[in-house]
Amino acid sequence: MTFKEDLLQYIWKYRLFEAGSLITRKGETIHIANPGIQNFHSGPDFKNAKIYIDNSVYNGNIELHIDPSDWYAHSHHLDHKYNSVILHVSLNSSNININTLDGKDIPQLILKDKINRSCLLKYDLLLKNSLKNIPCAKLFSEVSSMLPGIYTELLHQRIIRKSHDVNKILITNNDHYSRSFVVYLIQNFGMKFNSEGFKALSEAIDPDSLLNTNSISKEALLFGQAGLLSKVPSGPYEKKLIELYQKIKKERNLKEIKPSKWKFTRIRPNNFPTIRIAQLSTILSSTKSLWNDILSSEDVEEIRDLFRKEASKYWNTHYTFGKESSFVRKIVGNKSIDHIVINVIVPFMYHYSNINGRPDFVERSLNLLYQCKPEDNAIVSIWEELGVNVNNAGQTQALTQLKTEFCDKFKCLQCKLGQKLLKRTTPIDNNGKNSIFL
């Protein structure tokens, strides 16, 4: 197997080696009282360690490498931050000495013959036997019971990652939450089908212009900036939209996006960008401050009422401009609303709570996810195939975080499930038979 430094650091951190008979390269006995605290920044790998070499106690830092020569390859001998190193730990041995910038000869510990073989075999199994990019799939039954215990941590991680986008939008809009929420809503209103188009539309819309107009003007501004009024039939509704948009465009010196941003093929008509924009316009026209109404909502059903709106009458008999269809009311469905709750409202509310010192809204944002039905997508299906039962969107978001940020990137050493698997090792018997050490 390919042995990487992060695995060596993991082994050191959790003492997955035979610690009873350690000696330095020069034959001195070593006892590890404290392996130190792992350092994820510049400088030695572990800080504030405590070790005994023969009868002397040493407090300081530990540096680990695969080969002793890496100390010089990484120029640690020229860096004063490494003067505090009290022990150099490596997988492999060599005859070179390890010296610091201040001239100190650092004791060396070689771990190759001391490492827990069970740990290495499981790690190798994780890397080589991934099933649908779940490295521990074949060992999952050993750790599946742990999953509910890490949902909350994974969920926080995912929401924090999403809230980074919220922060960018707030900065652009001078930390004005109502305006920023409208921009973030537009950006995500197309779901996966027209995400590129709605992102471009969110960047082309001035939220103040949108919020301070009547309902038909909102519709005209949205369709106009979307570039969807450039080639439409000249019916009464279309003429009104064009007339209003041309006036707003001239007043505010606007420039619409290209119509080529929008996708209509291989999409269900209810998800056409024309229908989604018409629904968005109605939602924004139904309240003076959508964000404030959301903050006042007690549960997900009250939020659904804010978004369960119907597109204007023209769209009852149309999916695109100028082409009539059978009568169908274009009402925003619960599945689309839950998508908005999961991907827009929750990260926005979470960010709001942290910035404004309102921990109650952190709890409320999580509860909104627990009240939404579980998502139905390829990632969730993979976990269900492994026997995981999902009951709400909080769990599916946590599982998505686990899959995309840990499994797909093979970060088993940072994953709670991977760590548990690697810590479950086979002990040595008193006669040394079936030794697990290399």
Shape: elongated
Strand content: 5-15%
Give me the number of helical elements: 17
What is the averaged pLDDT score? 91
Measured distance between first and last alpha carbons: 13 Å
- H/E series: HEEEEEHEEEEHHHHHHHHHHEEHHHHH
Rg calculated over all Cα atoms: 30 Å
Describe this structure in words.
The protein is an alpha+beta fold and 438 residues long. It has 3 domains: 111 residues, no CATH class; 93 residues, no CATH class; 199 residues, no CATH class. It is built from 17 helices and 11 strands. Strand 7 and strand 8 form a beta hairpin. The longest helix is centred in the middle third of the chain and has 26 residues.
What is the fold's blueprint, element by element?
Elements: H1 5-13, E1 22-23, E2 29-34, E3 37-38, E4 46-53, E5 56-65, H2 70-73, E6 85-90, E7 98-99, E8 105-106, E9 108-110, H3 117-128, H4 147-172, H5 177-188, H6 195-204, H7 207-211, H8 215-225, H9 236-252, H10 273-285, H11 290-296, H12 300-307, E10 318-320, E11 323-324, H13 334-355, H14 359-371, H15 378-385, H16 393-407, H17 416-423
At a glance:
The chain has 438 residues and is an alpha+beta fold. It is built from 17 helices and eleven strands. The protein has helices at residues 5-13, 70-73, 117-128, 147-172, 177-188, 195-204, 207-211, 215-225, 236-252, 273-285, 290-296, 300-307, 334-355, 359-371, 378-385, 393-407, 416-423; strands at 22-23, 29-34, 37-38, 46-53, 56-65, 85-90, 98-99, 105-106, 108-110, 318-320, 323-324.
